[in-house]
Amino acid sequence: xxxxxxxxxxxxxxxxxxxxxxxxxxxxxxxxxxxxxxxxxxxxxxxxxxxxxxxxxxxxxxxxxxxxxxxxxxxxxxxxxxxxxxxxxxxxxxxxxxxxxxxxxxxxxxxxxxxxxxxxxxxxxxxxxxxxxxxxxxxxxxxxxxxxxxxxxxxxxxxxxxxxxxxxxxxxxxxxxxxxxxxxxxxxxxxxxxxxxxxxxxxxxxxxxxxxxxxxxxxxxxxxxxxxxxxxxxxxxxxxxxxxxxxxxxxxxxxxxxxxxxxxxxxxxxxxxxxxxxxxxxxxxxxxxxxxxxxxxxxxxxxxxxxxxxxxxxxxxxxxxxxxxxxxxxxxxxxxxxxxxxxxxxxxxxxxxxxxxxxxxxxxxxxxxxxxxxxxxxxxxxxxxxxxxxxxxxxxxxxxxxxxxxxxxxxxxxxxxxxxxxxxxxxxxxxxxxxxxxxxxxxxxxxxxxxxxxxxxxxxxxxxxxxxxxxxxxxxxxxxxxxxxxxxxxxxxxxxxxxxxxxxxxxxxxxxxxxxxxxxxxxxxxxxxxxxxxxxxxxxxxxxxxxxxxxxxxxxxxxxxxxxxxxxxxxxxxxxxxxxxxxxxxxxxxxxxxxxxxxxxxxxxxxxxxxxxxxxxxxxxxxxxxxxxxxxxxxxxxxxxxxxxxxxxxxxxxxxxxxxxxxxxxxxxxxxxxxxxx
Length: 678
Fold this sequence. Notes:
The protein has a domain at 375-638. It has 34 helices and two strands. The protein has helices at residues 4-31, 41-67, 77-89, 99-103, 105-126, 132-158, 161-170, 184-188, 195-205, 207-214, 226-235, 239-258, 261-264, 267-288, 298-323, 326-334, 338-346, 349-360, 381-387, 395-403, 405-415, 424-435, 453-458, 462-465, 473-490, 500-519, 530-547, 554-561, 575-585, 597-614, 619-637, 640-646, 653-664, 667-677; strands spanning 375-379, 417-421. The longest helix has 28 residues, at 4-31. The chain is elongated and about 95 Å long. The model is unreliable at 180-192, 550-555 and 668-678 (pLDDT under 50).
C-alpha cells in the first residue's frame, strides 16, 4: 500500500494531467468575469491560482508525453495532445491576468512555437498506432488547438498599450458605428432593447474616445462632427446616464485589455468560433465510429470522450456568447455588408439571440454584470490610531505584530479599512462638480491647476489656505483629512439637520482619499509619502495614549478579540470625533516637530471654524468642493497605466472620474461648442 500513490501516478499520470487541465479551463471560464467587480478575496485567489496552473499543467502534460515511451495500453495519448493545445488557447473571457501579461506577448509567441513543435513531435511518434478515423480527428483537433493558441497570443499583442496606441493611428473611423436614438433594428421593432442594452450600444459608439484616452493619445477631430455631436448630447444627459456610460466604457476597455474581444469580434474571429464546435463534433463522430474502442483501455476511452464533450460544450458556449455580445452589434452596425445588417438586425434575429444569451447569464447579472461594483474604500487615520495597540486588540492583529513589522502594517491597512456603496447624492455632486470645471481643464481634459486651487481661488481664499494644501498631494491629503475631522467635530453648522448629507459626503470623500493613500498609493500621482504617514500615525498614537485611555466593559472584549474588520463605519462611529476634539485642544508643544502636519491640520480646522463664525461663506460646501478638487486632481493626474491595471481587479472610482472629465471636457466638444457659439 505504501507504493500505491506512486504506482497510480506512474500508470495514470497522463490521464490525471489532461483531466486536470480541462477542469482548470472550466474554472477559468466560470470565474473570469468576477474581475470586472470587486470580488471575494478567496475567489480572486482561486482565479489567480487557476490562471497560473492552467498553462503550467498543459505544458507539463505535453512535456510528459514527449518524454514518455508511449506504452501500448495508452495509445489514445496522441489524441489528447490537440486538447492540451486547445487548453493553452484558453477561454475567450480571459487572456491576461495582469497588464504585464500583454507586454510579454513575444514570450507567449516563443512558447507557442515551442509548444506546437513539441506537440508535432509527440504526434509524429505516436500517430501511427491509431486508425485513419482517429488520425483524421487528431489532425482536425490539432489544427483547431494551434489556431486557438495563436489567437490568444494575438489577443495579448492587441491588449498591449503600445500596440493599441499605434493601431489607433491607423484605425479608420468607419470601424465605429454611429449611434442614434433610434438604431435600424429599433426603427422596425420598438422596444427591442431595454435601457441597459441601449447604454451598452451607445457606449460602443463612443469607445474610440475611451481608447485614445487610455493610451494617452491625441484624437483627431472628426470632420463630420459625429463625435462632437455625440459628446454634446451626452453632456446634456443627467448624472445617471453619464455614470452608466463611463462604467460601460471602462468595461469595454477591460474586454480589450484582458479578454479576446479584440480578435474574436473580427471576420476571422467569428469564422473560428463557428468552425470550432463543428470541428469538435466531427472529431467526436470520427472517434465514436472508429471501431477501435475494444483496442483501448476503457479508462482512456472515457477520458477521450470527456475531453471531446468538454471541448464541444465550451466551444458552443463560446460561439453563442460571441455572436450574442454587444461587440457583435457594433460589428454589424459598422460593416459595409448591407445584406448582413438587414438579415441580422432588421429582422430581429440578433436581438432574439441576444435575449437568449442574456437569459443564460441571468444568474451573473445579465447586461448589468458589465457595470462597476460602485464602491469606494474608506480609511480614517484617527479611528485607526485610537483603536490600535489596546488591551482588546484582535488575536490576528497580535499574531501579525509578533511576526514582523511588514505583516503588522498589512494587518492595520486591511483591518481598519472598509468600503461603502456610492449613493446617488454623492454621484450627483461629483458629476455636477466635474461639469462646471470648464476653464480649469485644457482641451485634452487635463486639469490646469493643483489640488484645491480651483475652489479656493473662486472664493478668493487660496492665499489664506495655501500653506495647508501641502507641498505634495499625499501630504495635503493627510493635512486636510485630519483637519476635516477636527472641523466637523467642533463645527456647529455640521450638526444642523440640513447639513447631514453634506457632512456625509465630506466624510466619504475624506476617508476615500485617505484609503487611496494607505491602501492604493499607486492610484495617486506624485511622490509617495509612506514615511510621512507612518510618522504621523506614531505621533497620533502617542497623543491618544497620553490624553485618553478608553475603557470598555469586559463583556465586549471577547467580541473584539475575534473582530476581522474595524473600519470607520463600524461599531464605534464617534471614535474619530472623540480623538478630533482631543487634537483641537492639544497645544503646539505637544506636537512632535518631526511631524508638523498635525500643526497644519490644527490650524486648518481653526481657520475653517473662523470662516464659519464670519458667516459670509458656506464652509461645509467649501470643504466638500476642496475634497472634490483633491479627488478629481488625483484621478486626472494618475498614470493611464495605473488606471488600466486597476481594471483587472474591479476598477476604481478615480478611473470613472478621470474618464468622465475627459468626456465632458474633450477638445472635440470644446471645438464644437466654439462653432456653435460663433
